[in-house]
Amino acid sequence: MPSTKTPTGKTTPKRMPTLSATEAPVSQPIADTSGRQRLMDAAIVEFSEKGFEGTSVLAIARRADVKQPLLNYHFGGKEGLWRAVVESTYTEALASIDAMQVDEDTADPLTKLRSALRVFAIINVLHPAAHSLVLREVAQAGPRLDWIIEHYMRPFHELLDALLAECEAEGLIKPYPRAYASVMMTSLLTSVQSSIHLIKRLYNVDPMTAEQAERHTEQTIDLLLHGMLVQQPQKRSPSSTG
């Protein structure tokens, strides 16, 4: 199976994940699974709604319908549980990015860039609570954000920066400052996450369904790469006519 090398030296298989109708994120009660998984499911809701500081281990245990000592047994405390939640989400995200349908020998840089952006957007739609959890840490800054950056965000942004540089070198995209380009793109791709209720009330559309997630992803990538203006031929000025 053809593969590619990321800037971190990691080999990525050739396969593209898709978002099926059954994968659309929905709000559901904690499933009847193992105590550890129930704690994970409960924690991601609590952390995304209240932040790390505002969440108590008792509230997580109650939501998971388990005894609080079980949380300490599995995770050693709130910090350990928080990290386990982030690791679970980002492990799946990185696995999906590793599965991008990119052929190192034949795919052009723009195709690689589109694939990376699409996978990133779909993963965030599939995990809205996890996205909210991370946004809270981005807004506050601190040791937990540093931990997320070093373990998960930096590898992806290094990949994205390399793809942007490759596209720029071939004259496919405009040059943008490295410190803003990839963050600008990922922020726009996930902007729908913070506008869910607004979109529902304004247009009676649920942006978190599988169909809408695909549409949002493709439209946003098109906006990023082509802009919104319909390109028109430039009119010749009267002075340029013979």
Please write out the topology.
Layout: E1 3-5, E2 11-13, H1 35-54, H2 57-64, H3 68-75, H4 78-98, H5 109-126, H6 128-140, H7 143-169, H8 178-189, H9 196-203, H10 210-226
Antiparallel strand pairs: 1-2
Helix pairs in contact: 1-2, 1-4, 1-6, 3-4, 4-5, 5-7, 5-10, 7-8
Structural key phrases:
242 residues; mainly alpha; two-stranded antiparallel sheet; 10 helices
Q: Could you please describe the fold and organization of this structure?
A:
The chain is mostly helical and 242 residues long. Helix content is 63%, strand content 2%. The chain has helices spanning 35-54, 57-64, 68-75, 78-98, 109-126, 128-140, 143-169, 178-189, 196-203, 210-226; strands spanning 3-5, 11-13. A two-stranded antiparallel ribbon has the order 1-2. Helix 1 packs antiparallel against helix 2 and helix 1 runs parallel beside helix 6. The longest helix is centred in the middle third of the chain and has 27 residues, at 143-169.
